[in-house]
Every structure is written in C-alpha cells, then in structure tokens.
Structure prediction request, 232 residues.
Amino acid sequence: MRRLVRGFWGPRPEPAESLADRWRRTLDGLTGLVPEAAAAWSRIHANGPATAITPDEDALLGAVRAAQSAADWSDLTGTGLRLVGTGTPGWEVEVSGLAGGTPEFLLQSVMVVLHAPDGAAVPEEDVLALLARVWEPDFGDVTDNDVLDALEDEAGFSVEDPAVGRAGYLSPARAALVPDHLEAVRQELPGGGELLSIAAPGDTGAVVRACERLREAGALAALPRPMDRAVL
Prediction:
C-alpha cells in the first residue's frame, strides 16, 4: 500500500547547514520508525542515475550544497532533495523536500512516500509527528489517492489548499482554531502544534467531514499571498 505523509509551510530562509541537519534528523527518525525501508539510501538526480548516499551530516550537507550549485537553483525557490531508502523486499521510502527559500506563492514542503506489503503495520502517524518536529510545518497530513480524490470531488479542495487526511498536523495558530466538536483524537506536540487522528484507511467520508469543519472554523485558511511568513 502506498501512503503519503506531507508537511507544508511558507517562506523560511535557512543556511545549508540547517537544512542538512533537518535532513539528517529526518533520515535518522525514519530509520528508527521503518527500518525495513531504510537499510540503504540513494539520492535521485534530475539527470543521470541515482547515487548512494550515507545518512550523515557531512554527506547530506554535500548534497544540499550540490543542489544549490545547480544552474537552475534559486534561493527564492528553495533547495530540493529527493532520497530513496530501501531494505526488506516490498518496503521502500521516498523522501523529497523543497526548503530554505523565500517564495511568495509556492509553498515549501517535505513529503514521505511509504511503500509496504499489504497488511504490514506502518507507523504513519509517527512519521507525520517526526516531520512536524523536524521541519516545523504550518500543516501536514497522512493521505492517499482516494482521500485526495474525495477532498477534491466532494469538498472542493484544490491541490494547494491546506487540508488534513486520515491524520493531520496543524501549527499552533491553526490548532487554536480547531472546534471542540471535531471527531478526532488530539495530541499536542512539542512547540504547541497538534496531531489529529481522524480516520482509519478507507474512511474517506470521515476525512471529508473533518476538513469541512476545520475549514469552516478557519483552521485550514490558506496563507495570504504573497506569503510573508512560514506559518499562519
């Protein structure tokens, strides 16, 4: 089964060293949470074959700096990396991110794509909590194609609209707007944001209802454009 775990935020300039540290903590966390998919890591390039990379700070700092030396790199857009972890057959984790920039219209983001055998237990909410701690996003979700289709078709959400999935993360200002009657288990995370446990896999109706209520309460308001801050 393919799962998406994502986080989004607005402009937040950061030096290469800070980005490398966030990447290291992300890979360390994933190795602890899904060791079956993180025995070896490779970096995916826009052109050419993937290359092996060790998940340590020096190697990741080198990868960040290499990305920033590309001809099309812009400090306004941010620095993108794409890494893939493999291990036990049937397991794979892909991590991609665009961070450290100051875009006015394009959200910064990190996304983990988890592939696991059918029936395997995957700590997807723990992965979302990891992304929240490491990347300090404005909002995030655990989702899949069925959830994304339901939000678009039944609730009118577009690709860049803030939303939650089977689980969601909301930064402190958004969490303060969550209505008391929301049908979700709420867990406060370090820093004041909240992890919301909303629905089991396949229950797209519960996700749609939760997103509609959160949108009505203002907890899923979009960052103003042009963006001038990382979080609501």
DSSP finds six helices and ten strands in the chain. Helices lie at 16-33, 57-68, 124-135, 145-155, 172-175, 204-217. The mean pLDDT is 94.
